[in-house]
Amino acid sequence: MAVQSLYRKWRSQTFDALVGQAHIVRTLRNAITEDRIAHAYLFTGPRGVGKTSMARLLAKAANCEAAPSDRPCGRCVQCTAIAEGRAVDVIEMDAASHTSVDDARDIIERVQFRPSSGRYKVYIIDETHMLSTAAFNALLKTLEEPPDHAIFILATTEVHKVPATIMSRCQRFTFTRHTIADIAHHLERIATEEGMQLAPGVAEAIARSATGSMRDALGILEQLDSFTNGQVALEHVHSLLGMTTAAEVDALIEALLTHDLGRALKVVNSVADQGADIRQFARDLTERLRMLLLCVAATDDALLDIGADDRALLHGWAAQVQAADLVHWIKLISGLDYQLRTTPYGHLPLELAIVEALVAPPAPASVPAAARSAT
């Protein structure tokens, strides 16, 4: 029998259990409490940030047998069925595989029938942007004047592909990426519940690799559980994900700051000799340089999603570098992903970028025409 994945097992079943998205939770809870549930919602944001979980919670809150409540009981027939994914009145559709106008027309026909057992018939349409133009057009009238018993929840990672006519008929909520701290804290709690032991730094390393996606983070944690039998060290994370250590990234940055080309190239070759993923190393380096740029340019630390020790290190580096140099380095290294993926010469593109970063100065800012004429 297949084992339930961690992200499904630990899907939030109450609004209180949701990680992040506090602004959306508060708005929806108020709407439920005041009996002002809208007929159509549009949830937008990156993958793995809680759009589908929020949609299911809204469906549960609207259909709880006790009463529409921002704290659904979780025990009644409706709450249990929705949590287990078998509620007949909560229809989930993946628009990526149901893109045609016929699929939209099927929804339009079925939505006219009243719910079988719940208070509302809820349609959750994931990856909405994948619907065809004809399918969007077919849904327009229904979204504008739906039956009183229907709620539509559209979820998408690419809102720019959703027609403005659809967006104007929905209440839009924008989901943001989870912070590293939120993901790490959630992973540590789940690991404890699952009987796993995470070494210091493991949860944060996973969180950084997940780039704001809780689902991706839980997927990595599950892989590590199988890989290590529950005893997870930082080396296991680096090995599984092809990551390099923070020490190697920091060593390269220190070489850049001191303009030590020999040391910088030695770090790059050492990373390559270890068999690490050079593309991932370049991404890690770019992100670290980005954090340093924010430290140099920002007036406060609000943008720095890092711990106190890292914060102190970055502030020390910030005193040694100009923002223009950092911009130059970031432009050089952030554009390497495609080259590193396609080149037959291994890590040569990164070596060339490092040499250019230290040998060729950043291009001077162009002078506006008005300023030139004034001189």
Your description of this structure?
The protein is of the alpha/beta class. It has three domains: 6-174, Rossmann fold; 180-241, Helicase, Ruva Protein, domain 3 (Orthogonal Bundle), CATH 1.10.8.60; 246-359, Zinc Finger, Delta Prime, domain 3 (Up-down Bundle), CATH 1.20.272.10. Helix content is 54%, strand content 8%. The protein has helices at 6-9, 22-33, 51-63, 77-83, 101-111, 133-144, 164-167, 180-193, 202-210, 214-228, 234-241, 246-257, 261-273, 278-297, 308-318, 323-334, 337-342, 348-359, 369-374, and strands at 40-44, 90-94, 121-126, 150-156, 171-174, 197-198, 231-232. Strands 2-3-4-1-5 form a five-stranded parallel β-sheet, with helices on one face. A two-stranded parallel ribbon has the order 6-7. α6 (133-144) links the parallel β3 and β4. The longest helix has 20 residues, at 278-297. It starts with 5 loop residues before the first helix and ends with a helix. The model is unreliable at 366-375 (pLDDT under 50).
